[in-house]
Amino acid sequence: MTAIVGIASGGTVHIGGDSAGVSGYVVHTRADSKVFVTGSYAFGFTTSFRMGQLIRWAWTPPEPPATDLERFLSTTFVDGLRECLKTGGWASKDNERECGGVFLVGVAGRLFNVDSDYQVGESAHGYDAVGAGEEVALGALYATARTRMSPRKRLQLALEAAEAFNGNVTAPFAYVSTPS
């Protein structure tokens, strides 16, 4: 299900997402957005609307520090996220290992990918994508990286490409940016 794309550019993170809710061969176009801003953060999620709802409505992420952002996200941020997902009944355990979901998060001008095992990664390219349309979207982001296109236009093209080549991705597309 889905395509979530993000670009870090000029101290701002831009995230875009589609509207597909997929169950087997059925695709529902959802009105509730997979991308949103909470405090200093911009989020774009895949995996489960329930997970996204918990992150959006049941959790207040801690304010990021001025330094050591990667360490903060890998510890304090993820610890709070894990607690929110457990309390909300979303997190699961398999062989004593906790699992959550996948999402992009932008904060302090940087874009991170949080995977289902809660690892926090940052692409060296300044852009990333997650979801069923990830590969096509990454190709489109790569192809537009050396252009003068705005981040918003690049996100739009990546989402349109993912929709054209993946049945789990559907418009309309929504976009958010980290607060200035």
Automatic annotation (TrEMBL):
Classification via Gene3D superfamilies: Glutamine Phosphoribosylpyrophosphate, subunit 1, domain 1 (3.60.20.10)
Xref: InterPro entries: Ntn_hydrolases_N
Top-level lineage group: Bacteria
SUPFAM superfamilies for this protein: N-terminal nucleophile aminohydrolases (Ntn hydrolases) (SSF56235)
Name by which UniProt lists this protein: Uncharacterized protein
Origin species: Cryptosporangium japonicum
